[in-house]
């Protein structure tokens, strides 16, 4: 479980997160939803200690991240952020290989090579492994970064908007892959997702943030209602049950 307690974050005079407390269950997929600027990326960045904690606590499986050595944290948790600027003259295979760094620290062995192969294959990247990142489409680039996170083989995988840029085929494939990891693989995945229908279809738990506060959380079937979503996004949103799950009709 990731236990978040009274997490607040300020930048300049602005409150970005305000006393957020929540438990992210171990195993399964937790979807974080909410409007742009709600604080979703900040919450994930704080939980992964990419951003230094100001106020509050985060415990990962009982361990306070403020006191966890960096290398140990990297073996427990991988995070793939929204597009970060990286050297574009890097090859796909090398990028995915970086995910193994916390395990081998410069001397990759057979298990590291196997994990890289597996991650490349899982995201349809084997044929692209020698390409430079700046020779990829947006979606291919996105998949390469997610493959790097997967190759890290951590209990926790945090993905910030992993579906961005993906076509329907690759979006569904990514969700199926993540779902399999969270089931057979026993891994715990936390992802920021904007298309609520993906959260409804695949997530075990939904967390909604609004204006830096926890707005609601719970099982998709229970919390993804028209009333809640309309209030969250400040627009009228119709939800219908299709094939037993909430489906948002938001395009018009
Ligand atoms: N480094 C930063 N400097 C100033 N403001 C920031 C910074 N990072 C985030 N913010 C602001 O904090 C708020 C929350 O951002 P973010 O966590 O990225 O939201 P979300 O991921 O939900 O869209 C936004 O208003 C954003 O502009
Ligand atoms: Mg964000």
UniProtKB/TrEMBL annotation:
Superkingdom of the organism of origin: Bacteria
Residue stretches making up the ABC transporter domain: 2-236
Membrane topology label: Peripheral membrane protein
Subcellular localization(s) per the UniProt record: Cell membrane
One GO biological process term: iron ion transport
Gene Ontology CC annotation, any one: plasma membrane
Any one Gene Ontology molecular-function term assigned to this protein's record: ATP hydrolysis activity
SUPFAM superfamilies in the cross-refs: P-loop containing nucleoside triphosphate hydrolases
Listed transmembrane segments: none
Keywords on record: ATP-binding, Cell membrane, Ion transport, Iron, Iron transport, Membrane, Nucleotide-binding, Transport
InterPro entries: AAA+_ATPase (IPR003593), ABC_transporter-like_ATP-bd (IPR003439), P-loop_NTPase (IPR027417), Siderophore_ABC-ATPase (IPR051535)
Family of this protein: Belongs to the ABC transporter superfamily.
Listed name of the protein: ATP-binding cassette domain-containing protein
Organism of derivation: Mangrovicoccus algicola
